[in-house]
Automatic annotation (TrEMBL):
Its cofactor is Zn(2+). This is M20 family peptidase. It holds the Pfam family Peptidase_M20. Residues 183-284 form the Peptidase M20 dimerisation domain.
Length: 388
């Protein structure tokens, strides 16, 4: 039997209705980080119905969030050659009283929190694995499907997984529009604190506004540190700014949270030095205030080699479905950074658009989800079932 015939037989076991039903159910279940138990239970039930063996891997719970766990499906000889990795948690829902969790289907487009990031990737990975088992496929090399929790915070689910799991390659289903991402941005989370001098609101000449100093510092950081040139790609997002109070006074304290994403070609040491110089200059401009910075989290960027044998096998999996293998960078943070640090090559690949993730208009095209399931199954075939 030819290789293409074998792959075609596997693809014939994909069930679009089954995949769509599961995805809609997943989006209908509200599952922000630390509150994933309901969605984990639903996925376990779906795996049981599909006669797919799985085990739960407990993840240390936070107060008020007991019983958190990753779901692991291990097939074929272990340790695995390939891991399919998805996260089941989402960001919290928006606070607007008019918003409500759940999905809506408009033609072939599914709307809802988590539809793109990344319950569509999870549903496609599950469908590919179920089709593999339905087909009675025999794996020469092992496969692990890992559905983890906590990605939208600091990746405690992935950290637990990587304590005793390893594979040469992981496919992580973050939304990339099904374009493979071999380059992954790094992420730095900063907290800025501005301290000023309190005074009557009508006498700014007597006081020193911490809010004024903070806003000036943030603008200076964006203008002087952020650089759009290809060699030093940095994006800065002031995620949160708060300070002052309801009293009629000059604010004496202000805090801000900044997200900094940096491409693989950016030197994080040089970036930190530029931030320090900018803070020093800002403090000189506001001598009665002091603005300080604290780095809360850092995950380094990475870039995979296109000529690596694992990437070339992945490329053949694309070409087998007449889909071009055209990599582009993934400009955000994900569990991929943690996998790379653990010595696993993380290829980011999933349905959906990162630009709509975490928004009220989050959505995914169902046709893309079905294409994702085909790609995941082709990747399993080429990495775990052939002589490639």
């Amino acid at each position: 039997m030819s290789m293409m015939t074998e792959l075609d037989e596997l693809l014939a076991h994909l069930n679009q209705d089954r995949c769509e039903r599961l995805l809609i159910d997943l989006v209908d279940i509200y599952s922000p980080s630390y509150a994933e138990s309901a969605v984990v239970a639903h996925v376990c039930k779906a795996l049981q119905d599909a006669a797919l063996p799985y085990r739960l891997q407990p993840v240390v719970a936070s107060p008020g969030a007991p019983g958190r766990a990753n779901i692991l499906v291990e097939l074929g000889p272990q340790p695995a050659e390939l891991m399919l990795v998805g996260h089941l948690d989402t960001v919290p829902y928006f606070s607007d009283e008019h918003d409500a969790p759940g999905s809506t289907l408009d033609g072939g487009v599914l709307h809802g929190l988590g539809s793109a990031d990344m319950k569509s990737g999870c549903a496609a990975m599950i469908e590919a694995t179920v089709a593999l088992v339905d087909a009675g496929a025999r794996l020469r090399r092992g496969l692990v499907l890992a559905l983890v929790v906590g990605e939208e915070e600091y990746g405690d689910g992935a950290a637990k997984l990587l304590e005793n799991a390893h594979a040469p390659l992981a496919i992580i289903g973050e939304p990339t529009g099904l374009r493979p991402s071999l380059e992954h941005y790094g992420y730095m989370e900063l907290r800025l604190i501005a301290e000023g001098r309190r005074a009557h609101a009508a006498r700014p000449d007597v006081g020193a506004s911490a809010i004024h100093a903070m806003l000036s510092t943030i603008l200076a950081i964006i203008e002087q540190v952020s650089d759009a040139s290809p060699a030093t790609r940095v994006s800065i997002n002031p995620r949160e700014v708060h300070g002052g109070n309801s009293l009629f006074v000059i604010a004496d304290r202000c805090e801000a949270a900044l997200d900094v994403h940096l491409a693989a070609g950016v030197d994080p040491t040089a970036l930190r030095e530029a931030l320090a110089r900018t803070l020093e200059a800002s403090n000189a401009d506001h001598p009665l205030c002091l603005v300080s910075s604290e780095e809360l989290f850092f995950a380094p960027a990475y870039r995979l080699d296109l000529d690596d044998a694992r990437m070339q096998t992945s490329r053949r999996a694309f070409l087998a479905l007449q889909q071009a293998f055209t990599p582009r960078p993934f400009p955000s943070h994900s569990d991929g950074n943690r996998f790379f640090e653990a010595g696993i090559a993380p290829l980011i690949l999933g349905p959906g658009d990162l630009g709509v993730a975490h928004t009220r208009d989050e959505h995914v095209h169902l046709s893309e989800v079905h294409r994702a399931a085909e790609l995941y199954l082709s990747l399993i075939f080429h990495h775990c079932m052939t002589d490639d």
